[in-house]
Design a protein that fits this description.
The complex is a heterodimer of chains A (325) and B (528). Chain A has 325 residues and is an all-alpha fold. Helix content of chain A is 81%, strand content 0%. Chain A is built from 13 helices and no strands. In chain A, helix 5 runs antiparallel to helix 10. Chain B is of the alpha+beta class and 528 residues long. In chain B, 27% of the residues lie in helices and 20% in strands. In chain B, the strands form 8 sheets. In chain B, strands 8-9-10-1-11-21-12 form a 7-stranded mixed sheet, sandwiched between helices. A 4-stranded antiparallel sheet of chain B has the order 4-5-7-6, covered by helices on one side. In chain B, strands 19-13-20 form a 3-stranded antiparallel sheet, with helices on one face. The radius of gyration of chain B is 24 Å and the shape is globular. In chain B, 56% of the residues are buried. Classes of the chains: A mainly alpha (325), B alpha+beta (528). At the A-B interface, helix 2, helix 3, helix 5, helix 7 and helix 11 of A face helix 7, strand 10, helix 8 and helix 14 of B.
């Protein structure tokens, strides 16, 4: 059985490596079909007044005049030995650029996730507590409201009220604890909506089950019912949703970081996209692919630990895998 | 012209009164700090120039009126033909790594500015005279520089934002290491304390600095202890932070915000750089702009005052020539392109462009068409073009506006391209003589108007300007040249350009603006 699991794990890892490589190559192709390149467009700024010969010499240095397939092959072989190359715009090594901003985004994403979970559980619990005609409807509308307000609007609002009106934090000190908290709130709110939706739906479903009616008929109050019986089975699908929100967190970070003046992966992506800085984009997309694959793999592995029903299903699947091998 | 040239820069400088104070930390919010810190590759950018202006020195100083005065070069002389220059350097100037700023360091910099380092992917600096041959260190404080043709623009170019003196040790580093700002060593009044790509740069004053240009009101070390440049991409947040006292200066507010800031007692500054005014270079090879009457109709068909009052504010000045009026040698040629819709209509009638039922003109079944490509490097360009289109439509032009992003623009919109009848120019220059290198294709000129050498008057005047060996001899020729280009409708000026706008706390005093409109905080202090 453990050999079967090992093969299963090896298969997943191989799959992940292929996904990452494809993401790396795909980014290259997508950016390469766009007209122009970052080096030429900088030099062509009419302020410069460079001659075509002067521009050609620099473009040749970066190898941007060679056929696309040659450039792709070189970038892939470099990537395989762990060399991410040099940014075409800043001239700095890509590994340094990404390394410098990674921590800031990890902190922001994890804080935003925490904010999202707290908010989602609060809203879902509120729905169960409030009677249908007194405020419950309003709370039920929260997820779709949160989902439909763009996070830059939330961000600008938070900054205007808490930084400029109340002076709780300074926009200059963008990585400070309070600035980070408010950035996490701006990023976490839309994410909380998805979690809350799933949670509310599951709580509704579980509350309609026979065991819940039995518990209620035995005189169990709202709180007891919620925490002792309903929450655990309802929380399971949340794990899946959280794994899927990684993309949301990374995508939302682009805007949130820009608004809060944070220097993270998001702002690096934003700068690199606008300047077509291919080596940086390739590295960031590969990194995002790694994060995505790892988080979803982790979710798959955590799930059985939380739910015995799934555990037996996985055991069966593993056995099937073992038998097939 | 002098009054116009002083403009708002001076007003801003006199914004505060009181005794200068020592110490203090300045926070400057900026939309970007550009892409790279490799000195040559970044020097042209309007963002990095703020940092270079404090970390590095130049050989000569050029003030906001284009006046050139000594700095690291204490004096200079030229031969009769303006092809050989001798620079005498100030003694005792050092880079912050201890290397002296001597003749050999200056030679290393001159070579780098003119040639770049193509083997490292480092480009030359734009607009350095392309006739540069070589330079040599005669003794530790004397440099001789040789050109293959008269180069009157050489000395002013030394005060241009690209000509920053960098330690030879830095210049010898590979590009990857030059891209790390901490390695870029200058001799300026500030040094880099820390920096983070895409986030901020913190400068600290250099205590032993003692070689400021005499033209500045201050000498010795800077008064401020530190300057923090912090990127805040959202313009409204930059200005809100200054309003709520969280920062001292906000760069590039929207022009419409200036009035409300002034009303609240904040200081604003809209210094102009030295260069071409915003305007169109017309490609005379593209029909119907091969007909001088159509070009002249365009020239007199634009109401420039309406552009200033609609898109801009009173901080923008009307164009008087195709040069900004603070460029030495620029003359007032307003009459050559004055707004006169009736004259434009008459010219178009004469050229055979008749109005149809819809009011639009055509000839032999072809519409009188003009396509404008807003300059993506200038934020207000699209609004200006929309207004110009509206004005020209009234004259009977069919005007299309085709906007591209920076990358596509660079690919498709070029001087002299058969699909581009009107190219929107932004170009800073320090010396008016540079113009000779763009008007025709003589001496590998940029040939902005697609004329080649077909206009003998233009060829004669350009050659005479380029060949002048003194500014006195050149002045009347430049005046004649400006008149000719404008009357022929080759260059259609719109307004003078303000590319850098500043909103700052009234506590900040003593700020100086140089010839490329950068704020210099070496002279500044934070008052009560």
């Amino acid at each position: 059985m453990s050999g079967g699991y090992g093969r299963y794990a090896a298969g997943r890892v191989a799959q992940a490596v292929v996904v990452v490589l494809l993401a790396y190559a795909f980014t290259f192709v997508v950016i390469s079909v766009l007209p122009g390149d970052p080096v030429t467009s900088t030099l062509r700024d009419p302020q410069n007044g460079f001659t075509e010969e002067e521009i050609a010499a620099i473009v040749a240095y970066y190898g941007l005049d060679r056929p696309v397939h040659e450039q792709l092959w070189e970038s892939l072989t470099r990537f395989l030995v762990g060399d991410f190359g040099v940014s075409l715009r800043s001239g700095l090594p890509v590994a340094d650029l990404v390394g410098e901003v990674l921590w800031s985004t990890v902190v922001l994403a994890l804080s935003a996730l925490a904010v999202a979970l707290v908010l989602a559980f609060a809203v879902a619990a509120g729905v169960r507590y409030l009677p249908p005609n007194r405020g419950q409807g309003v709370l039920r509308a929260f997820p779709s409201l949160f989902l439909s307000v763009p996070n830059f609007v939330i961000g600008l609002l938070l900054i205007n009220v808490f930084a400029f009106q109340l002076g709780l934090f300074r926009v200059i000190d963008s990585e400070g604890p309070l600035a980070t908290l408010f950035a996490a709130i701006a990023l976490g709110i839309p994410v909380s909506a998805q979690v809350a939706e799933v949670l509310i739906a599951n709580l509704d479903h579980e509350a309609g089950q026979e065991y819940a009616s039995v518990a209620r008929s035995r005189g169990l109050g709202r709180t007891g019912l919620l925490f002792r019986h309903l929450l655990k089975p309802s929380a399971l699908p949340v794990v899946t949703v959280v794994a899927l929100t990684v993309g949301e967190l990374l995508g939302g970070a682009v805007i949130t970081e820009k608004i809060f003046g944070r220097t993270g992966v998001g702002s690096l992506v934003e700068r690199s996209v606008t300047t077509q800085d291919l080596p940086v984009l390739q590295a960031v997309v590969a990194l995002a692919a790694v994060v995505f694959v790892v988080v979803n793999l982790a979710a798959d592995l955590v799930y059985p630990l939380l739910d015995p029903r799934v555990r037996s299903g996985v055991a069966a699947a593993r056995e099937r895998a073992g038998v097939a091998a | 012209a002098t009054l116009a040239a002083c403009g708002s820069g001076v007003a801003a400088r006199q914004g505060g009164s009181g005794e200068p104070r020592q110490g203090g930390d300045l926070t400057f919010l900026i939309d970007s700090l550009g892409d790279t810190w490799i000195p040559n590759n970044s020097a042209i950018s309007s963002f990095q120039g703020h940092i270079w202006g404090h970390v590095t020195d130049k050989l000569v100083y050029v003030d906001e009126n284009g006046k050139t005065s000594p700095w690291v070069a204490r004096e200079w002389e030229q031969n009769e033909t303006a092809t050989e220059f001798t620079l005498r350097l100030r003694e005792g100037v050092t880079f912050s790594d201890g290397t002296p700023v001597d003749a050999s360091a200056v030679v290393a910099n001159l070579d780098t500015w003119s040639k770049g380092a193509p083997d490292k992917g480092i480009n030359p600096i734009g607009l350095f005279p392309k006739t540069y041959q070589r330079s040599e260190a005669v003794d530790p404080t004397t440099v001789k520089v040789f050109f293959s043709a008269p180069a009157l623009g050489f000395i002013p170019t030394l005060g241009y934002h690209g000509s920053i003196l960098i330690s030879p040790k830095t210049l010898a580093l590979p590009a990857e290491e030059q891209a790390d700002l901490s390695n870029d060593i200058g001799s300026g009044p500030f040094t880099v304390q820390s920096w983070k790509q895409g986030d901020s740069v913190v400068l600290q004053k250099r205590p032993d600095y003692d070689w400021a240009p005499e033209a500045l009101s201050h000498s010795g070390p800077a008064r401020l202890d530190t300057i923090t440049y912090k990127i805040v991409a959202e313009p409204s947040l930059r200005t809100a932070a200054v309003r709520s006292n969280q920062a001292d200066v906000a760069y590039n507010p929207s022009p419409q915000e200036l009035a409300s800031f002034k009303a609240q007692g904040f200081t604003t500054a809209a210094p102009r750089y030295l260069g071409f005014v915003s305007g169109f270079a017309i490609n005379t090879k593209v029909a119907p702009y091969d007909d001088p009457r159509v070009r002249q109709a365009l020239q007199h068909g634009i109401d420039r005052q309406e552009i200033i009052s609609t898109v801009y504010t009173e901080d923008w000045l009307p164009a008087k020539s195709f040069f900004q009026s603070n460029v030495p040698g620029a003359t007032d040629r307003s009459a050559d392109f004055a707004f006169d819709a009736a004259k434009s209509a008459r010219l178009l009638d004469e050229a055979g462009w008749a109005r149809g039922a819809d009011g639009l003109r055509s000839k032999d079944g072809k519409a009188l068409e003009l396509t404008l490509h807003p300059n993506p490097y200038l934020a207000t360009s699209k609004s200006v073009d929309e207004l110009v289109a509206q004005q020209l439509r009234e004259l009977g032009f069919t005007v299309n506006i085709q906007a591209f992003d920076v990358v596509t623009y660079g690919e498709r919109v070029k001087f002299n391209s058969p699909s581009v009848a009107a190219y929107e120019v932004t170009r800073s220059i320090i010396d008016a003589g540079t113009v000779a290198g763009v008007l025709t294709d003589a001496n590998r000129g940029e040939n902005w108007f697609g004329l080649g050498q077909s206009d003998p008057e233009l060829v004669r005047l350009s050659a005479a300007v380029a060949g002048s060996s003194s500014t006195e001899e050149r002045a009347p020729l430049l005046d004649e040249l400006q008149g000719h280009v404008l009357r022929q409708g080759y260059y259609i000026p719109l307004t003078q350009i303000v590319q850098r706008l500043y909103v700052q706390t009234p506590k900040l005093q003593g700020v100086t603006y140089n010839g490329v409109a950068y704020a210099n905080y070496y002279t500044a202090w934070l008052g009560e």
